[in-house]
Amino acid sequence: MLRTIKPRNARSKRALEAREPKEVEDARTAIFVRGTHTGEVVRAAMKELMTLKKPHAIPFSKKNMIRPFEDASSLEFWAQKNDASMFLVGQSTKKRPNGLIIARTFDSKVLDMCELGVDQFVSMSEFKTPKATAGHKPMLHFASELFDTHPRYIQLKSLLMDFFNAEVVDSICLPGLEHVISVTVAPSPPQQTSTVTVGGTQQEDSKSLPKVHLRTYTVKLLPSGTRVPRVELTEMGPSLDISLRRHQDADPEMWKAAMKRPKVKKQDIEKGLGKKKKNMEVDEMGDLRGRVHIAKQDLSKLQTRKMKGLKARLGNEDEDMEDGASEEDESPRRKKRRQE
Fold first, then answer.
1. Which of 33, 27, 81, 14 is nearest to 53 (CA)?
2. Which of 98, 184, 307, 311 has its CA 20 to 30 A from that of 149?
3. How far apart are CA 195 and CA 204, in angstroms?
4. With contact defined as beta carbons under 8 Å apart, do 315 and 307 qualify?
5. What is the pTM of this model?
């Protein structure tokens, strides 16, 4: 446990405020940790995944005696010290060769983890094609129904989205979309429904789950004669075939706290950013505009400003004569008052 540090000056205060929770979180920083035994495949896979994650990646060059599923205290210490929320741990053993563990933290505590086995790896250097610029936000494509229905693949999709996702952007510039990461699921094997008994409870065997294919492509926009360009994809690497192994689900209370959203301010609601109001919208200039629905009005009964020029003329000569006589009667009275 790290002691609580009180800021001594404005610089340290700004550094502590940068680590506090925000309504719109910054890009997640990932720490790449090597275990005691890592093979050539694991090292190469971690190196190229770190290339896709840059600049939000922190590599650990030394080997570490770490077993995340048994003791996660080291991950929690590194998460708080480096202000990181994602981990990629590479380790290879005789029982579980070429293993990668993706871990996610919340409030410097391990939230959930998933272990993946690298069955096949193809490096970027083997693809003689253009590469994407480092630091660009990638597009993510998940092509399978299992990513929305199966709990193991739902967890994997959530971890990969948090791992590769960068800053939250309001608008997208098409030339800035340089590469896409495609994640697909292989056809299901016939023994997918097999189960094993662990601690008196039946769990699905990870060996029966279909493999996952991770591919990376560069995006090339070509003219098509319309406003929408024609898109061509060229594989640039890395290419991984991975299988699901051990996993650790998130604690329900911690997951509820992690998914909690801040209350929307009254000003944001009035601007239309919060709960959507009926017949109200914010235009491009940021002005709030509303639409009011009223019944059909009879404009002939509409009250207007009383002016002599707007009075209706009845066209009766009698009334005109009466008006003229009344004016003649009033004129001598006004003269007498003036003489007095």
1. 27
2. 98
3. 4
4. no
5. 0.72
